[in-house]
Amino acid sequence: IRIPFASERHAAIAKQVIEVDKELQPQDVKRDLSVDGGTLIATFSTLTVRLSRLTVNAFLENVDLVVRTIGEFGENAENGAAS
Amino acid sequence: MPGKIRKRSPLKRPERPYIALGLEGSANKFGAGIIRHDPDGAMTVLSNVRHTYITPPGEGFLPRDTAQHHREWSLTVINDALKKANVSLHEVDCICFTKGPGMGAPLASVALVARTLSLLYNKPLVGVNHCVGHIEMGRQITGAHNPVVLYVSGGNTQVIAYSQQRYRIFGETLDIAVGNCLDRFARVINLSNDPSPGYNIEQEAKKGTRLLPLPYTIKGMDVSMSGILSSTEAYTTDKRFRPNGPRDAEDTDIFTPQDLCFSLQETVYAMLVEITERAMAHIGSKEVLIVGGVGCNERLQEMMGVMAGERGGQVFATDERFCIDNGIMIAQAGLLSYRMGNQTPLAKSTCTQRFRTDEVHVAWRA
What we know:
A: 83 residues, alpha+beta, TATA-Binding Protein, 3-stranded antiparallel beta sheet, 51% helix, B: 366 residues, alpha/beta, 5-stranded mixed beta sheet, 10 helices, 19% strand, tRNA processing (chain A), cytoplasm (chain A), Transcription factor Pcc1 (chain A), nucleus (chain A)
C-alpha cells in the first residue's frame, strides 16, 4: 500500500507513529514500513486472505487517524510559535 | 503510621510556568485537559473537555466501536481544549497520554494521536497510569493530605494508600469492578446510558423502598462483585418482580426495578465502606478520598461520610468534571512525573491493558 503525504517529513512521522505498535498477530502477519520521498509504503504478508483484510483494514484506520491529525495540526506546527 | 516527621517533598517549585496537555481514552470517554504549574506552587486547570460514547439502553460499549468514537472525536476535543485554555501546542512542555490500564483499541487510538502531536511539535511524551491520574487529580482538587483512596469506576475497584513512593493496593475486587456490576445491571433493566448508567441507577434507587437480601461478599480486604450481579439479575426472573410497579392495590409482596437498584447500591456501597474502613484502621488514617466515576455517587459519599465521621475523619470527593474519566487528570499526573525528569521515548509509548497502580514510581512525593 502506498500513501502519499504532503512532505517527506509527514510521511516519516506517520511511519514512526504507526511502527511503535506491534501487529496483533506478529507470527502470522509480516509488516514492513518504509518511506520513499513523500510516500509511506506498507507491505504486508499474511497466510490467509481474511487476515490480509483485517490487517489492512486496521492499518488504514490508523493511517486515517494520523493523516487527519497531521491535517488538523500540521500547518500550525510548521508555522512555529506564533502567539 | 502516616509520618509525623515532615519529609521534604522531592518536587521543587518550578522556576517558570509549565504547561501539559493530557489525553485520556481508556474507556468510553475521550478527554483532553490542559494544566499549568506556576512558580508560586499553584496548579491551575486551564481546560478540561470530554466527549462520551453513549450506547443505546441495554447495550454496553465494545472496544472496536469505542476506538472508532475516539478516532472521530479526538481532534475536535483537543482543539476545543486548546481554544478554551487559550494555549497553543507550541507552548506545552509535554504531551501526556494514558498508557493503561484500560481497553486496548481505544487506548491505542489515543496513543496514535499523542505520538503524532509529539513528533509534529517536537514535544516529549509522558505515558501515565490511569489510576494514578485519578489519585493525583483527587489530591490536587480536594487538598487531602494523605488519605486512604477508594478508587471505584467501571473498570477498577481498589483501596489504595500511599507509602514510600508507591500507591500500594490494600484491597481490590477479585473479579469485576463495582461500576461494571452497576452498568451491567442497568443493561438488564434497560436503563438509559445517558449520561451514564450509574447515574440512572442512582436516580432509580432513590425511588426504591424494599431492601432485598443480596450476598455480602467481602473476602478479607478484598471484595467480589460477580456473585452480587448474578443474584440481582436472578431477582428479575422472580415471580414477585414487577417491572412496571404493582399490578393493583393487593399486589404487595412484590419488588420493582427501583427496589433492586436500591438494594444493589446499599449492598455494594456498604461493602466498599467496610474495606475502606479496614484500610483506615490499619494505617491510622483519618482521611478518605473517593475517586473514579462511581465516586460521583452521592449515596456512596454519604455512607462513607457516616463511617468517616464515626472515626473522627472526613471524606474528600470531587464532582463529575474530575471523578469521571478526563484528560486533565492525565495532564496533572503526567506533568508531575515530567517535572521529576520522567518521559516516555517514542519506542516505549505503547499501551497496555493491564497496568498495576503500584508499578508507578511516585517520584514527586516524599
